[in-house]
Each structure stands twice: as structure tokens, then as C-alpha cells.
């Protein structure tokens, strides 16, 4: 076969193309890994927000103010158990209180360290 009519890539061209693909592939893989980690965090935050919304709605349905000190209990949402804290805070009007709700992942808060708050809500309630 004549060199002038030969078609295809030389070994050097193939190695250079592979090197360029490898250099481009590393940042792409890092971005994919970070997006996967962010997806888990977003899922946890969304579930915690639903727990906080449900807890706040339960407080309003009960029609009773929570105590002034933080009270804790756990709730199931999805496949996870959550630590829920709630309390009421006095305002200038005796018939009006601020209600606070915080939600943490229970598995993380069972360790010796305190888990971060994943969802926090404040609302106001009028005495009926």
C-alpha cells in the first residue's frame, strides 16, 4: 500500500486524542460526583421541610400553644426518622405567640454530636 493513499490515524494522533479525552473527562466526572452528593442533600432538606410543614400544621390543628421550652420527639417521613423540636415564644400581646419548629435527621443526632438543622419554620398563632 502506498503511503500517499493510506488513510487512518497514526499512533501518535490516537494517543494525543486519548490524552485530550482524559483531561476533559476528569472535570466532568468530578462534576457528576458533586451533583450526586447535592442530590442527596436536596432530598434530605426537602423531606425535612415536609416534616416541619406537617408539624406546624399539626400545632395549628391542635389549637394549643407548645410550651416555652423546646420539646423533642421523632417523626417518620419517607424511609427516615426525624428529630422534631418545637416551642412557643411570647410576644407583646398575651393572646399572640410565635411558634418555632426545627427538624434534624435523627440518625445523625443520635451520635454524640448535634446534627445540623435541616429545616426551620416560624409561624404565629392567636389564642382562640
From TrEMBL:
GO terms for cellular component: plasma membrane; type II protein secretion system complex. It is a single-pass membrane protein. InterPro entries: N_methyl_site (IPR012902), Pilin-like (IPR045584), T2SS_GspI_C (IPR003413), T2SS_protein-GspI (IPR010052). It is found in: Cell inner membrane. Keywords: Cell inner membrane, Cell membrane, Membrane, Methylation, Transmembrane, Transmembrane helix. Cleaved by prepilin peptidase. GO terms for biological process: protein secretion by the type II secretion system. Signal peptide: none annotated. Residues 42-125 form the Type II secretion system protein GspI C-terminal domain. Transmembrane segments: none annotated. Pfam families: N_methyl (PF07963), T2SSI (PF02501). Its main location: membrane. Component of the type II secretion system required for the energy-dependent secretion of extracellular factors such as proteases and toxins from the periplasm. Type II secretion is composed of four main components: the outer membrane complex, the inner membrane complex, the cytoplasmic secretion ATPase and the periplasm-spanning pseudopilus. NCBIfam families: gspI, IV_pilin_GFxxxE. Belongs to the GSP I family. This is Type II secretion system protein I. The lineage of its organism: Bacteria, Pseudomonadati, Pseudomonadota, Gammaproteobacteria, Oceanospirillales.
Amino acid at each position: 500500500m502506498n503511503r500517499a493513499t493510506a488513510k487512518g490515524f497514526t499512533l501518535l494522533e490516537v494517543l494525543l486524542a486519548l490524552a485530550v479525552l482524559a483531561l476533559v473527562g476528569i472535570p466532568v466526572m468530578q462534576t457528576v460526583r458533586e451533583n450526586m452528593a447535592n442530590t442527596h442533600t436536596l432530598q434530605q432538606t426537602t423531606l425535612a421541610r415536609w416534616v416541619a410543614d406537617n408539624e406546624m400544621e399539626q400545632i395549628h390543628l391542635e389549637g394549643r400553644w407548645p410550651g416555652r421550652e423546646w420539646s423533642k420527639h421523632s417523626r417518620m417521613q419517607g424511609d427516615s426518622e426525624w428529630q422534631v423540636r418545637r416551642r412557643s415564644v411570647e410576644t407583646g400581646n398575651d393572646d399572640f405567640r410565635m411558634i418555632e419548629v426545627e427538624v434534624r435527621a435523627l440518625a445523625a443526632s443520635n451520635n454524640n454530636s448535634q446534627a445540623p438543622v435541616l429545616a426551620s419554620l416560624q409561624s404565629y398563632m392567636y389564642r382562640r
